[in-house]
Structure formats: structure tokens, C-alpha cells
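Each field is set out underneath.
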Amino acid sequence: MPGVIDYNIDFQLAILALMIRDRSFLSDYGYDIIKPEIFENFYLSTICNFIVTYFVKYGSAPTQAVLTAQVQDYCNTMKFSDEILSNYNSFVSRICTDDFGDLDFVKEKVLSWVRRQSFREGIKESHKLLEEGKYEEALQHMLKKMMIGHNVGSGSSLKSKIDTFPEEYRRLFGHEAVIGSGFPSLDICLNGGFGKRRLYVFLAHPKGGKTTMLVNLACNFLRQGLPVMYYTCEMEETEILFKIFSNLSLMTHEEIINPLNDQRFRKELEEFKKYSADIRVKFFNGGTISTNAIKSHLSKLKITTGFSPEVVIVDYADYLIPTVGLKDFMYDDLGNVYQDLINLGDYFDVPVITASQPKVGAWEKEFLGIGDMSGSSKKEALLYALISINQDSEDKNKNPEEFKLYVSAVRMGLSDKVIYCKWDKDKNYMQEIEEKNILIRRLEK
């Protein structure tokens, strides 16, 4: 691409950040649209070359550690001074760790620049061909230039998929591709568990167990050795961590805060210290951020620490604002948040699990289900599965530790199923009562 990009140094750094943080940018739009020569700054041009070269070879963007190693090797080979090496490392650090705001805006701007430059170059070169009487070549050349900077995937072909589709589909959606919930009957209803790029919503009354359920799922995923990212928009990080520690150690609040139990606490959690997997908890102020903040945070985590979760939990979605901007129309605003979460799961190739509250008119129902979510029916149209947490007044009086999960709707699975569970509130621990779920368990056979 001819010419030097006409944006300031901070925006040029943001372009390089986009290249390594946006998983799909290079593959969707072509790594050849961002070339080293568009950067006038020597350091940025070289770093761009490192990123493109790495992508061509490995099919992914380099991490901060990889870029730092490449810079070190390059400076050693070129016999550059320590000052130049320090400058390189400073730029790499900024590219990998600085907050550049909405990178989708950066993408839009840089693609616009690429298209504009390409169009100008196309006109210039096509004019030469026209003067030579090469009309067909001029047309084809201009069309080719006009397609640069556009995602022009060819789509999926039925004929090309016939021979490979069963294996490919099993790889994407089969039992080996899903993540177990730790609730065996729930997994039966969900066709094996939580699948990638899908949105799952747990519905419950205020104080009805939404956060405790999300914490239980996070802990169950960790028990399977899976890394989990937990975003909280209501409780502070320490409160969520307490619930996690309580669940994993099966110790109550009073037991954990008693110094005499420190040795027991560490003993109970000793096995988890050996895990390579981890649960990370991040607090965001509710009502102030969209999934763009989550996307940016996850991208930065992967680049700077190598942490790449296999599940993302958002506690909970109704606290987010849409990425497209508020329209003051609840149907669109809340519905668009759910679409944003689906896009987030697709971007990072993970299941996204969240929670919601019912509308006031449904509070007295025995089982919450489709039609009972607060805010927007558009949410229900977008989610993959809706599971409610239910405990009626009789349960609270006679068996306060018991509750029922109701699988209201699943796109590919078993809907309208009740799963009996119990809840140790002091230990933040939930589990299925297997002997009461005989009918569902029989379906497995």
C-alpha cells in the first residue's frame, strides 16, 4: 500500500495494538493491508514487520514476550545500542499494555484509510492501462483495488462440506467440544454441557442464587482444569473470591476468618495451587461499560500474561450497556447487550454465561421461564439456553436447602425439564440431588 499513514504516533501505536489484540483482524481483512512501509517511524515499521512475519508463519499474532524476544534478537544482530533496544521495548510495552479505547473505532479508521489509498492508486494505475488500450485489464485492476480492505469471504459451500461435515460438526458441537457444568442432569439437557460461542442465561429472583450459581459453575470448571474469567458488575472482587474460596474449601465465613483455621484452609486448597488453570475475577462498575471493555481486558490479559480463558462469566449482563450506544429503548438496548455477549463468545471462541432477573409480574410463579425475563423479549430471542433457579415458599419453609433448576428453553437439547438441587448457603456450594432426577438420568441411556 503506497504512502505513509496520516495519523499521529499514538494512533499508529493503536493500529499495531489492533493487529495483535483483535483475533480476526489480520485473517478477516488480510495481513497484507497493513504493511511496514506505511509507518514513517522506524521502530513502528520494524515492529509491524515482526507482527506480519509471525502471523504468516504461525497464523496468530505474537504475544508481548515473543515481540520482546524478536526485538532483542534483531538489536543484537544489527549491533544496535542499549538506547535503541530500550526504545524498541518501550514501544512494544505500549502496544501491548496501553489502553487505546475502542479498537473497533481504530479498525474503522484504518480500513477507511486503506480503502481510500487503494482507490487512489487504482485510479492512477488503471488510467495508464486505459491509455494503452487495455480496457479489460484496467477494469479488473480497478475492481481488485476496490476490494482491498473489505472482508470478502466466500461463505460455506454445501458440496465442499458433504464429505467432511459430520466430523467437523462433532468437533465444533459434539460432546467432546462442550464443557460440563458439574450438574449431570443439566448437562444431559444441554446436550453435554456448555458449547463455545453460545450464550447461556440463568434466571432468578433478587437474592435467588444467581451469583452463587455462577460461582459454582466457575469452580466446577476449575475442577476440570479449565481457566475461567469472571466479570462482576455488582459485588467487589474480594466478595466473589470469598465465595470461590468457600466453595472450593467447603468452609464457612466464620471458619475462614478464624486464624486458627488457616492451616486447614490452605490444606483444603492445596490441590488447586497445583493447577495450571486459574479463575480470574475482574470488577467493572455496572452501567458504565460495554462488552468492548471486556474485550479489551481479555485481549490485554492474553498478550501480557498469556491467560486465555475457556469460559467467560458475566455477573451479570443487565449491568452492561450496548456497544452501539444507548437508544433509550429497552427492547433494543438490552437486546443489543445480549448480541454483544454472543459476539464476545464468538470472538474468543468460548461459552459466555450470565444471569438475569425476572419481571415483577412473574415473581409468584412456581417456575420461571421464557416470557419471564425482565426488560426485553429480544434477550430471550438471542440466548442459546435459559435456565431458572426456583424456590417457592413451601420449599423455603420445609426444605430451605433445596431448590429446582428449570431448563426452560434450549436450542439443541431438552427443554421444559426440572432438576432437583440443594444449596449449602454457608459454604456457597450447590449440587444436584441425583436420586431425585431419575427420569432425566434415564434419558442419558
User: Anything to note?
Assistant: DSSP finds 20 helices and nine strands in the chain.
